[in-house]
Design a protein that fits this description.
The protein is an alpha/beta fold and about 290 residues long. It has one domain: Alpha/Beta hydrolase fold, catalytic domain (Rossmann fold, 3-Layer(aba) Sandwich). The chain has 7 helices and 12 strands. Strand 5, helix 2 and strand 6 form a beta-alpha-beta unit. Helix 1 packs across helix 3. The longest helix has 22 residues. About 40% of the residues are buried.
């Protein structure tokens, strides 16, 4: 049996010969929680080796309607065996019920904010995030979104995950990329939480200055995926009253997201700036996207 990171008595799928190509290496000597200071939880680090069928660069560009960068390979822009993922699996007693899955798009170490692990336990959500997926435009389609697909693919091969409870989230630029991933891959990510950052598929005028506007930052998805995202996905835009992205997100929500998407809400934390939201506000977002 391959070693799988788990907490307590968490059950996992038996790995048969068809899954031998997925190698999960424990990069720490202990699967018990490791605390990284300031109330954060640093999850055990694992490696994956099997790509999602749609995570290669050429497939990503076709799905997202993006012109490939000249000089880049049509295959993957990274060696998956060298990537590191933080993985948290809830401590639960029911061995039969499937998990949900929350994929994080992160620019740095995938540590988990204070109080969030209790939420993952309560909602039976596995949390996974890559360590430093990059932050420029080239990395969006070459690393960040492909790695999110790879993370979801591998975790779902190993654990009993309900495919209708697979979500994506990110903070700041990670939230922007998560908003793109949700719209273009609604067949994978059935909901998303866009924290202190989101992108939009339409240009939107700045309400405080009619001469300025925020340009569209990605193309509207193709027909069937757009219909899935609009009518079946569940989304939360989460910001704070003092966040410098607050006006942009508020305007996107009221002028585009709310008008276009069937299931979307806007949450604004009083007094919060450009930072991680408190656990109770994050739980409100989880509760909404996980509602069925």
């Amino acid at each position: 049996m391959l070693p799988i990171v788990r907490k307590g008595k968490t059950p996992y799928k038996r790995i048969d010969m068809a899954l031998r190509s997925i190698i999960v290496t424990i990069c720490c000597f202990c699967a018990l929680p490791t605390w990284a200071g300031e109330g954060k939880y640093l999850p055990p680090i694992v490696e994956f080796t099997e790509h999602h069928p749609m995570s290669n660069y050429a497939a990503m560009c076709r799905r997202c309607r993006v012109e490939p960068e000249r000089g880049l390979s049509s295959d993957h822009q990274y060696d998956l065996k060298k990537e590191r993922f933080g993985l948290y699996v809830p401590d639960v007693n029911d061995a039969n019920a499937p998990f949900g899955l929350l994929v994080w798009i992160s620019m740095g170490t995938p540590d988990i904010p204070e109080g969030y692990t209790k939420i993952f336990d309560k909602y039976r959500l596995i949390s996974v995030g890559v360590d430093d997926s990059g932050k420029d435009r080239k990395s969006t389609y070459g690393r960040r979104m492909p790695l999110a697909l790879d993370a979801a693919h591998n975790v779902m091969k190993i654990y009993n995950v309900d495919p209708n409870r697979v979500y994506i989230t990110g903070v700041s630029a990670g939230g922007r990329v998560a908003s793109v991933a949700c719209m273009h891959y609604p067949d994978v990510f059935k909901g998303g939480i866009f924290i202190i950052g989101a992108n939009c598929w339409e240009p939107v005028r700045n309400p405080t200055n009619r001469r300025k506007y925020w340009p569209a930052t990605f193309y509207q998805p193709f027909g069937k995926y757009w219909n899935m995202a609009r009518h079946h996905g569940r989304y939360v835009m989460l910001t704070g009253t003092k966040d410098f992205n607050r006006l942009e997100m508020h305007t996107y929500y009221h002028r585009v997201y709310k008008r276009t998407l069937k299931n979307v809400i806007y949450l604004e934390v009083p007094g919060m700036g450009h930072s991680i939201p408190p656990a109770d506000w994050f739980e409100q977002a989880i509760e909404y996207i996980d509602k069925r």
